[in-house]
Amino acid sequence: MVTLQELWLVRHGESVGNVAATGAETAGAEVIELTLRDADVPLSETGVEQARALAVPLAGADGVPEVAWLSPYLRAQQTFALSMESGAAIGRVLTDERLRDRELGILDLLTWRGVAARYPEEAKRRARLGKYYHRPPGGESWADVALRLRSFLHDALDADARGGLIVAHDAVVMLLISLLTGMDEPRLMRFAAANTVLNASVTRLRHDGTQWELVDFSDVRHLEQLGAEVTVHPGSPDA
């Protein structure tokens, strides 16, 4: 049985939620004006263009990934479908709920200004516990997401394929990198503070027979090559 030797981690293209969240933060608003639940947020027009541009690295790969795992959220599903329109074909495509975005509980749809104004004690608790261990009421900490991703990797790494593709979310990409390369909390927090997982970017990891190595991080050369906009949305305000 062949086990995975290379993993491609793709963040979904820009979503209407990304646009709304960034707009609310920029305007100094407390609430992100979005009526859809997180699972149903679609790509923006720019996100559609970005997703189609992903066909370039997939088609040019030395062996297209043989299996793909997708977050069940609409923006990830759309990103994968659009990336396949130009001819790249992946035989096995699986949707896995463990790849969903981090759940924010009572902080959902609030900017940082909104959190500070409406839940000041929660903002203080977040500052004390730190990004990795803070769990908003009704939501998840980064550690919680890491636990479900450990479960996912336990299954995925024995997929009987040499290459795999994951289409998911920025926090999921960050945490998969940390789990595969053995980053502890301080190293992960330093890495996350210094780096952003860009929309429709490709991050690649390769197994050398002993350990996983980060080969490319948040690569958007395919967007630049096709003239698609590169968008910087760092994710949830809690990030």
Automatic annotation (TrEMBL):
GO molecular function, one term: phosphoglycerate mutase activity
UniProt-listed InterPro entries: His_Pase_superF_clade-1, His_PPase_superfam, PG/BPGM_mutase_AS, Phosphogly_mut1
Biological classification of the source: Bacteria, Bacillati, Actinomycetota, Actinomycetes, Micrococcales
Class in the EC hierarchy, top level: isomerase
Residue ranges of the TM segments: none
Similarity section: Belongs to the phosphoglycerate mutase family. BPG-dependent PGAM subfamily.
CDD domains assigned to the protein according to its UniProt record, in alphabetical order: HP_PGM_like (cd07067)
Species of provenance: Microbacterium sp. A8/3-1
UniProt-listed GO biological process terms: glycolytic process
Keyword Acyltransferase: no
Protein name: phosphoglycerate mutase (2,3-diphosphoglycerate-dependent)
Ligase listed as a keyword: no
Domain of life (superkingdom): Bacteria
E.C. no: 5.4.2.11
Coiled coil: none
Residues the record lists as binding substrate: R11, H12, G13, E14, S15, V16, G17, N18, R75
Record keywords, A-Z: Glycolysis, Hydrolase, Isomerase
